[in-house]
Amino acid sequence: MSMRAAIVVGATGLTGSALVEQLCENDEYISVTVIARRKLTFTHPKLEVKIRDFDRIEENDIGFAHELYCCLGTTIKKAGSRDMFEKVDFEYPLAIASLAKKRGIPHFLVITAMGANESSPFYYNRVKGKLERDLEELGLQRLSIIRPSLLVGIRDEFRLGEKAGEKLLKLAQPILIGPLKRSRAIEATQVAKAMIIIALYGKQQPVTIYPSDELASLEYPEVPEEDVSREILFNWDKLNEGEKVNRDVVINRDKYKLEETVIDKEVHFRHRDQDNEFRD
Questions:
Q1: Is 213:146 a contact under the CB 8 Å cutoff?
Q2: How far, in Å, CA of 46 to CA of 48, rounded?
Q3: Phi, psi of 248 (to 5 degrees)
């Protein structure tokens, strides 16, 4: 079992909250630190939550970890403006990645979007594409870019557009085959699981992009059970001479003299007198 530490930002969202729970239940991790703007409802002995203002986050706010998972993301409607949207989806992840590099964190995993492209005609995808570009230019030791399709799951908030899209994609699932398979909706819990699998078993290279269809197919590798036969366990002849136990010493009671002490029920105590003599 490893003794890994993880940091998660964006832990109150759909994927981030699932990721935190899975990390805490994973035996590979002994420490999970969340940097958030508000408290979490989820608690766990492994979990530490640091409440921070992302506009004022500093290097000391980020301790060492083996992985930093960035699940920050919002919508223009929730952010209130394009400027605020870019702050959450572009400026914050880039600033946190820069601090992670300074702290020596070897692996940065970030969620962007399936259509991320800085030249995209769609504003949302352009912002995600700019983030990917600047993260790559940052020169991180290892960068994993997670590009999910439409995320499905139970949210704390209702998003009408995403709910409508989710229903349409579910209806279209049977015909989304071949190249279109990557457009299928994906469960947020599966994305969270895929991120942990990538952290533990993913490609060891500077930059890797994981499309949605690959995320959907990732599973933990099977660990073969060690088959130790009873013959090997109990066959004394197969043990090395140095490993053998001297059975004669262990079980030969005749080599030991057992003495029994019988105590008389009537016990008399002798007392010293003033002349240091014993008397009954």
A1: no
A2: 7
A3: -65, -40
Residue whose entry in the numeric block shows the structure tokens 């035996």: 27
Asked if 194 and 210 count as a contact pair (C-beta separation under 8 A), the reply is yes
Q: Which residues are catalytic?
A: 124, 128
Interatomic CA distance for residues 168 and 171, integer angstroms: 5
User: What is the spatial distance between Cα 179 and Cα 186, in angstroms, rounded to a whole number?
Assistant: 16
CB 119 within 8 A of CB 126: yes
Q: Tell me how far CA of residue 244 lies from CA of 55, 230, 231, 241, 275, in angstroms.
A: 66, 17, 15, 5, 62
Show the tokens assigned to 190.
């599966």
| Mean confidence (pLDDT) of the chain | 82
**Integer Cα distance of 98 and 96 in angstroms:** 5
CA neighbor of 19 nearest in space, from 33, 2, 38: 33
**The pLDDT of residue 238 is above 90:** no
Mean pLDDT of 173-181: 52
What distance in Å separates the CA atoms of residue 53 and residue 50, rounded to the nearest whole number?
10
Please tell me the chain's helix, strand, coil percentages from 3-state DSSP, rounded to the nearest 5.
40, 15, 40
